[in-house]
Amino acid sequence: MYKVAIVGAGNVGASLASRLLREDSVSKIKIYDTSDRFEAVYKDLADESVVVKAKPSLIKCKSIEDILDSEVVVTTIKANYDYRDYAPEDLRVVGIEKDFPRIKEFATFLARKKYEGKILNVSNPVDIVTKLISDYAENDKVYGFGMSMDVYRAKRFLAEAANVKPDSVDITIVGEHGDTMVPLYSSAKIYNQPIESFNLNLEEIKNKLRMHGASIVKVLGYTRFAPASAILEDVKFLLGMKDKSLMSVKFKDVYLGLPLYNKNGIIEPEIPRMTMKEFEDFEKSYEKLKKIYEKIKLSS
Q1: What's the CATH code of the domain at 31?
Q2: Residue 170: CB partners within 8 Å, gap ≥ 6?
Q3: CB 17 within 8 A of CB 37
Q4: What separation in angstroms does the CA of 89 have from each of 79, 101, 218, 252, 266?
Q5: 203 plus 273 within the same structural domain
Q6: Distances from the Cα of 115 to the Cαs of 107, 110, 130, 139, in angstroms?
Q7: For the chain, how many structural domains are there in total?
Q8: What percent of the chain has pLDDT over 70?
Q9: Contact criterion met (CB below 8 Å) for 121 and 142
Q10: Per-residue pLDDT for 154 more than 80?
Q11: Which has the closest alpha carbon to 223: 156, 149, 140, 136?
Q12: CA 2/CA 116 separation, integer angstroms
């Protein structure tokens, strides 16, 4: 039985806790938050735990130190912003300079306490924040959520375009969780047939994929339900309950999205086969993330 901690009980953090209440393999769900609304969020979740006859214990952490015995810590650290005030292309990078001190403080706390469990970062820009946490937490078991969500969305868009079920679509996406993401259409398949044989407008789907999250956030101010469910799947992977996922991981001197595999209890990334054009786009994604990270480090 596993313990999972959630740092930040906002829209996504609270929704993840709700999903975890239904998981038999989790013994404790620990939630830590410093906002004024946390008490009310906790009460609501505690009520739900009775409704769903939850097996995990729901624990409201009084101190950040209470999370340290968890196998996985999910962090959603982010200041409150009204994302509807920003241009769609800027939504994932909103506030990184403002958030940096809090991210650094949290990560250095983990380093000071020598936390050796797995850390799953959810905060955007995912690849940059995940790299920051890894550096300051001095922990090589840090992963970033986002690319798996892009895959789920791509499966839906491709399935709708081809008039098939999403489960029939197999696709990998690498690079940034953002504008320079690279869908690997060369290896994508529908019902085990090459995707090119379906005569779809793949470039249009790629552009739709890049802007889809923003189209939701511009109206609601957040995404919530799908990310929480997808994060749960990534948590299961980190706990060894799934064989494959796709997350932001260390690549050279940055973090970016790559397929991950559980091999005898060891998580290993894999660089998939790409065409020359796909690899060039992957390199562009890498270069973009490297420049952003260097800029943030210089200004900190």
Answers
A1: 3.40.50.720
A2: 188, 189, 190, 192
A3: no
A4: 19, 24, 11, 26, 36
A5: yes
A6: 10, 5, 16, 8
A7: 2
A8: 93
A9: yes
A10: yes
A11: 149
A12: 15
Does the pTM surpass 0.90? The reply is yes
3-state secondary structure (DSSP) of residue 95 = coil
Residues 6+ apart with CB under 8 A from 149: 177, 213, 226, 227, 230
Q: Is the CB of residue 254 less than 8 Å from the CB of residue 293?
A: yes
Same-domain check for residues 157 and 66: no
> d(Cα 177, Cα 125) in Å, to the nearest integer?
8
Residues 6+ away with beta carbon under 8 Å from 35? 9, 10
Q: pLDDT digits over 3-35, tens only?
A: 999 999 999 999 999 999 999 999 999 999 999
Strand-pair partners of 190: 169, 193
Beta strands 26-32 and 2-7 are: parallel
E strands, 64-129, are: 72-75, 118-121
Write out the residue range of the structural domain in which residue 288 sits.
147-299
Closest CA to 107 of 69, 83, 77: 77
The pLDDT assigned to 106 comes to 96
Say what the pLDDT of residue 95 is. 61
Q: What is the pLDDT of residues 95-104, one digit of tens each?
A: 677 788 889 9
Regarding beta strands 118-121 and 254-263, do their DSSP bridges make them parallel or antiparallel, or are they unpaired?
A: unpaired
Give the end of a domain, one of 126, 144, 162. 144
Specify the DSSP class assigned to residue 198. G
**178 & 88 share domain:** no
What phi and psi values does residue 222 have, to the nearest 5 degrees?
-170, 165
The reply to whether 95 and 6 lie within a common domain is: yes
* Same domain assignment for residues 203 and 261: yes
